[in-house]
Specification:
The complex is a heterodimer of chains A (206) and B (475). Chain A is of the alpha/beta class. Chain A is built from 8 helices and 7 strands, in the order βααβαβαβαβββααα. A 7-stranded mixed beta sheet of chain A has the order 4-3-2-1-5-6-7. The two termini of chain A are 38 Å apart. In chain B, strands 5-4-3-6-7 form a 5-stranded parallel beta sheet. A 5-stranded parallel beta sheet of chain B has the order 17-16-15-18-19. In chain B, strands 11-10-9-12 form a 4-stranded parallel beta sheet. In chain B, a hairpin with a 5-residue loop joins strand 1 and strand 2. In chain B, helix 6 runs parallel beside helix 8. The chains are: A alpha/beta (206), B alpha/beta (475). The structure holds iron/sulfur cluster (SF4). Iron/sulfur cluster (SF4) binds next to helix 4 of chain B.
Chain lengths: 206, 475
């Protein structure tokens, strides 16, 4: 995973609530066996016409937002399926950070595992950022994970909370399987105890 | 000092805790994982790239379901991308030596149907799958939740996940269920009440006399759609019904181990004074057969209602969401739900494809005909369910009524295998998601119970199944 560095970029306003993962990446694009290349299909069915041409009214097709790096979203972004293709499509497009009032649980976990920072803010802060984002290229938003702050175009800072472990993994670009394997002995101890106390729980092959 | 009272979730969590770090992150032991073709290829690649082995081979079960054809599959898989994905699952199963059902095996089926059916799912286990509807398995008292592909890889390599404990929420349903009301209607009513984000960050324990009286299959329907209320897992305390359900299943414990397991399973209930962060109560006698009218599972109403009017919503964002949903669905505020005509009817998915569901659909279909304007298909959840339904003659009843009878898989629930809605087409569907384009780009989905789906098939529109049954009684 790449290290997450402070950046400032164009933010795209995406105000609808309950944007589900089927909307972010429709099921027919899940036939891929790779993690990459999904950016072109991000929001596919609302981004393109049936003949494959771009819909002019879709925000990411507008010149100001074609290189967006921050997405400011409505409540409960990423609900629905567990498909990690949703963060893969977002990051492949170039989105590095999504800001909303709330996110669905599985999408939240999946995003951090792919270097995509999700930030929860209050409804008022989100609405203010939506207004900033509506100004397109004229207003860049900065994301400083190290110091846990969003910097609005006018310089105002919005502090945010982030889980310390996730922050550490993002900043260092760490693979959490490697971290867990450092606890290998404890896992083995657990397994040995469970084998005695609940022997039927381990191994199910018939 | 007495130990603090615990919920069922707390008990299963505590018994699987390997390590708690200073920052509160926990390493949680995962007993079982089911793996399907859509969310696993990249996980196995990850293992290969980092040269990591699978830690506990027998903890996994691999099966293809999302992408499999439901017709003529013995002739092979036509769609190339689907075939590559399904073949890759088999290749990974062989390479890593993991338990696997191939797609012609009679035990093949939807991951959340075959886990319980094989006895792979058991009370008190932690169970995961790269699929959000893993919540289904909570009906047997397992702590079961959906994960993404990186976590699938994490479980393969470490048999654990990094987690933080969820909040405890309890949904209690008491009262007498009315005629025509099923487990599906109960969960649609619950989601309608708490909303699609109502359970975010929570595990929902379902309780009350209605849940206790419900069959294990009905509980699976309820737990299945827990994710549609935003919660990661649903749970029902295991009881005699669950033990009876599991007895003799191929992967359930046998002999002395069975006795020992049941002894333990009996302890798996919340302590009387356990605290919940959120409590919700519903009176089942007020619940009617439900349908969804919009593009989110919280957009539901009793079948006797009309399509809601967005103009009556004060909150701007909410009003716009409802306006957008009605536009997408091609329906008008104020129109009777029973005036909505359907083009296709889909009876299947991990929500409603078990034998009880097929029996309920067949009971309505019996002696009736699918409306000329409708194409209806029934897709059993597993090969074994298909076999049983055929033994009971249900396939014949459905075929006589004009339904199509398919081979098991996810099918039109998400439209990956070619079974899908065309743009603008409308379905009554027993699945769990009515998102835009879920069943095919431009497709419109109304979520209903199996009996209500069959009623829609024979009338050609969303219909109140109670009226069909009444007219039968009058004859
Ligand atoms: S039936 Fe539908 S919801 Fe269930 S696992 Fe398959 S695709 Fe997912």
């Amino acid at each position: 995973m790449k290290k997450f560095e402070t950046f400032s970029g164009v933010a795209v306003p995406f105000p609808g609530h309950n944007i589900d993962t089927d909307r972010i990446i429709p099921a027919r694009f899940l036939k891929t066996i790779k993690r990459t290349g999904l950016g072109v299909n991000l929001f596919n069915d609302i981004r393109y016409n049936e003949d494959g041409s771009e819909r002019e009214d879709f925000v990411l097709n507008q010149p100001a937002y074609r290189k967006s790096e921050v997405l400011v979203a409505g409540d409960n972004f990423g609900c629905g399926s567990s498909r990690e293709h949703a963060p893969w499509a977002l990051t492949d497009f170039g989105i590095k950070c999504v800001i909303s009032t709330s996110f669905a649980d599985i999408f939240f976990n999946n995003s951090f595992k792919n270097g995509l920072l999700l930030i929860r803010v209050s409804p008022e802060q989100r609405d203010a950022l939506l207004e900033d984002a509506a100004r397109g290229e004229n207003a860049r938003i900065s994301i400083d994970l190290e110091n846990q702050k969003i910097v609005r175009p006018d310089g105002e800072e919005i502090p945010f909370d982030v889980d310390p472990f996730r922050k550490h993994c993002l900043l260092e670009g760490l693979d959490d399987i490697g971290i867990t394997l450092q606890s290998g002995e404890k896992i083995s101890d657990f397994e040995a105890k469970q084998k005695v106390s609940k022997p039927w729980m381990q191994g199910a092959r018939v | 000092m007495m130990a603090a009272p615990k919920t069922l979730f707390d008990k299963i969590w505590d018994s699987h805790l390997v390590e708690e770090k200073d920052d509160g992150t926990c390493i949680l032991y995962i007993d079982r994982q089911i793996i399907h073709e859509i969310t696993s290829a990249q996980a196995f690649d990850g293992l290969r790239e980092s040269n990591r082995p699978v830690r506990v081979k027998d903890a996994h079960l691999l099966v293809a379901d999302h992408n499999v054809p439901t017709k003529g599959r013995a002739d092979g898989i036509e769609n190339e991308e689907s075939r590559i994905q399904i073949e890759l699952l088999e290749k990974n199963a062989k390479e890593f030596d993991l338990p696997f059902f191939d797609f012609l095996d009679v035990r093949q089926g939807i991951v959340h149907v075959i886990g319980p059916e094989q006895g792979f799912t058991q009370p008190g286990l932690t169970l995961v799958c790269g699929d959000s509807h893993t919540a289904t398995h909570g009906a047997l008292g397992a702590l079961a939740f959906g994960i993404g592909t990186s976590e699938v890889e994490h479980v393969l390599a470490t048999q654990t996940l990094l987690q933080k404990p969820s909040k405890n929420m309890r949904v209690t349903v008491n009262g007498k269920m009315g005629d025509g009301v099923t487990a599906k209607d109960i969960i649609l009513a619950i989601i309608g009440k708490i909303g699609t984000a109502g359970g975010t960050g929570c595990v929902i324990e379902y309780a009350g006399s209605v849940i206790e009286d419900m069959s294990v299959e009905g509980r699976m329907t309820v737990c299945n759609m827990t994710i549609e209320a935003g919660a990661r897992a649903g749970l029902v305390a295991p009881d005699e019904k669950v033990f009876d359900y599991l007895a003799g299943r191929p992967m359930a414990p046998k002999g002395a181990a069975w006795e020992q397991a049941v002894e333990y399973w009996k302890t798996l209930k919340s302590d009387p004074d356990a605290k919940y962060d959120i409590e919700v109560e519903l009176d089942a006698s007020e619940i009617e057969p439900f349908v969804s009218w919009g593009t989110s599972p919280e957009m539901v109403a009793p079948i006797g209602d009309v399509v809601p009017d967005p103009a009556s919503i004060c909150d701007d964002a909410k009003r716009e969401t409802v306006e957008g949903a009605l536009k997408y669905m091609g329906i008008e505020a104020g129109m009777k739900l029973t005036d909505i005509h359907v083009d296709k009817v889909f009876i299947g998915s991990c929500t409603n494809s078990r034998i009880e569901d097929i029996r309920a659909a067949a009971a309505v279909a019996k002696g009736r005909k699918v409306a000329d304007s409708v194409y209806a298909l029934v897709v059993p959840g597993s090969g074994l369910i298909k076999e049983q339904a055929e033994e009971e003659g249900l396939d014949q009843i459905l075929l006589d009524a004009g339904f199509d009878w398919r081979e098991p898989g996810c099918s039109m629930c998400l439209g990956m295998n070619g079974d899908m809605l065309e743009p603008g087409e409308r379905s009554a569907s027993t699945s769990n998601r009515n998102f835009q384009g879920r069943q095919g780009p431009g497709g419109r989905t109304h979520l209903v119970s199996p009996a209500m789906a069959a009623a829609a098939a024979v009338t050609g529109h969303l219909a109140d199944v109670r009226q069909l049954v009444d007219s039968e009684a009058a004859e």
